[in-house]
Amino acid sequence: MAGEILDNKGRGDVSWSWPPIHPEGRKFGLITAALSLLTAFFAWETIAWPLAFLTLGVLAFFRDPERVVPQSDDLIVSPADGLVSLIQEVDPPAELTVDDGSGTRGLPEGKVTRISIFMSVFDVHINRAPIGGTVQRVVYMPGKFMNADLDKASEENERQHILIERPDGMMIGFTQIAGLVARRIVPFVKPGDLLAVGQRVGLIRFGSRVDVYLPAGTDPKVLLGQKVIAGETMLAEVGTQKLIEGIAQ
């Protein structure tokens, strides 16, 4: 189905299939599977069975399903699977705003809306581009490994900032943040890369968070506590401001 056009008029052909495993996770799956077989060979069943279940868990963690990405210039899609845990008015990180000496401009200074998406170990951890455009910055920052659900994780945890600029000049910054269990942010892109909306940009191993900084004058189309899907869920529509309310039930 990858690359096929699908629409709301029934165009396209789809069928269910097992999601593929991203190459980044195959080596971990092979290691745990080999250990499981080795312990089973020596009849250490109390160790072999947990390792077998761990193998399944590792493969499930690194699953990389195809996504049907909305194709509209006005939409900002979610870069991550997970739970919308915070929606706040904040100043963008300095790494996305200050002159970094590269000759490329950063985000304008001033308050913007930040949407924080918390990814549990059960979520797909492949992150995707919220808009199409050129990667202007990829900035890695070392840090702590606190609970990614905490507000201060945006400033204190290990993180990686990515800045994408559309052909019309609009820019979106987002941040991959390592969590309590996560210990590695794996980038798939570098400055100068041209991305399509929804294209894979990286992953974070074993539980984490992604922050998205919306352009000024744009409000979220998602609610606090909502489950979102990377590459498919619309986070916002550029230039649209409207209060949306929901009831947990």
Automatic annotation (TrEMBL):
Keywords: Cell membrane, Decarboxylase, Lipid biosynthesis, Lipid metabolism, Lyase, Membrane, Phospholipid biosynthesis, Phospholipid metabolism, Pyruvate, Transmembrane, Transmembrane helix, Zymogen. GO terms for biological process: phosphatidylethanolamine biosynthetic process. It is a peripheral membrane protein. InterPro entries: PS_Dcarbxylase (IPR003817), PSD-A (IPR033175). Is synthesized initially as an inactive proenzyme. Formation of the active enzyme involves a self-maturation process in which the active site pyruvoyl group is generated from an internal serine residue via an autocatalytic post-translational modification. Two non-identical subunits are generated from the proenzyme in this reaction, and the pyruvate is formed at the N-terminus of the alpha chain, which is derived from the carboxyl end of the proenzyme. The record marks G207, S208 as: Cleavage (non-hydrolytic). One of its GO terms (cellular component) is plasma membrane. It catalyses: a 1,2-diacyl-sn-glycero-3-phospho-L-serine + H(+) = a 1,2-diacyl-sn-glycero-3-phosphoethanolamine + CO2. Pathway: Phospholipid metabolism; phosphatidylethanolamine biosynthesis; phosphatidylethanolamine from CDP-diacylglycerol: step 2/2. GO terms for molecular function: phosphatidylserine decarboxylase activity. Its main location: membrane. The chain crosses the membrane at residues 28-61. It comes from the Bacteria. Its cofactor is pyruvate. Binds 1 pyruvoyl group covalently per subunit. PANTHER family: ARCHAETIDYLSERINE DECARBOXYLASE PROENZYME-RELATED. Heterodimer of a large membrane-associated beta subunit and a small pyruvoyl-containing alpha subunit. NCBIfam families: PRK05305.1-2 (NF003678), PRK05305.1-3 (NF003679), PRK05305.2-5 (NF003685). Catalyzes the formation of phosphatidylethanolamine (PtdEtn) from phosphatidylserine (PtdSer). This is Phosphatidylserine decarboxylase proenzyme. The lineage of its organism: Bacteria, Pseudomonadati, Pseudomonadota, Alphaproteobacteria, Sphingomonadales.
